[in-house]
């Protein structure tokens, strides 16, 4: 069973719930936030609720879990993060994250992803964490570099998003990495 709440010094990462839809719409409707996500900016709360419902179904079968990031001081939703494509058989997972634009540059992504990494290795006993990033997403690449992920190469035109095929750079971190 996946843990539904994780904590860092400044954040509560809790499993997404329908009550988060209004706050997440503000984030996921921002074209700057969704620029490197494989979704177009959302235009309605119904889209967010449908996404949360879909993610909840994946969590119920331990295939994935998405957390809403809540700032502990302000109690505001500032983004989301989580484990995409959990693969317990092969001991690996892909991670993803997004942060509200007003919160960029404050270290929240590093803090949240660091928590996910630690939890994946210590509690879920996974061996490999992957992140796939568009080459132009320099901020995300910096997050992964700060957390000692290794660049493995470019997956050429491996994902269709917003009408075109995109390259993705593969980064990983292993439980045996120091």
Q: How helical, in percent, are the residues?
A: 25-40%
End-to-end CA span: 28 Å
What string, H for helix and E for strand, traces the elements in order?
EEHHHEEEHEHEE
Q: Report on the biggest sheet.
A: 8 strands, mixed
Count of distinct strands = 8
Gyration radius, in Å:
15 Å
Can you list the strand order of the major beta sheet?
Answer: 1-2-3-4-5-6-8-7
Basic shape: globular
Which parts are unreliable, with pLDDT below 50 for 5 consecutive residues or more?
Answer: none
- The amount of beta strand, in percent, is 35-45%
| Alpha-beta content class | alpha+beta
Number of helices: 5
Describe the oligomeric state of these chains in a short phrase: single chain
Average the pLDDT over all residues and give the rounded result. 95
Word description of this protein:
The protein has 178 residues and is an alpha+beta fold. Helices cover 29% and strands 35% of the residues. The chain is built from five helices and eight strands, in the order ββαααβββαβαββ. The chain has an eight-stranded mixed β-sheet with strand order 1-2-3-4-5-6-8-7, with helices on both faces. It is globular.
């Amino acid at each position: 069973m996946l843990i539904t709440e994780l904590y860092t010094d400044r954040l509560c990462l809790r499993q997404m719930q329908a009550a988060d839809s209004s706050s997440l719409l503000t984030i996921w409707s921002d074209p700057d936030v969704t620029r490197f996500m494989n979704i177009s900016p959302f235009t309605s709360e119904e889209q967010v609720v449908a996404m949360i419902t879909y993610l909840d179904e994946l969590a119920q079968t331990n295939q994935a879990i998405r957390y809403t990031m809540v700032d502990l001081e302000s109690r505001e939703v500032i983004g989301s993060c989580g484990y995409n494509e959990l693969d317990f058989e092969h001991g690996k997972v892909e991670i993803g994250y997004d942060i509200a634009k007003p919160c960029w540059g404050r270290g929240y992504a590093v803090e949240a992803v660091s928590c996910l990494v630690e939890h994946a290795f210590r509690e879920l006993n996974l061996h490999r964490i992957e992140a796939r990033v568009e080459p132009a997403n320099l901020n995300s690449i910096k997050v992964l570099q700060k957390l000692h992920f290794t660049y493995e190469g470019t997956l050429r035109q491996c994902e269709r998003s917003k009408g075109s095929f995109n390259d993705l750079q593969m980064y990983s971190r292993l439980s045996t990495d120091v």
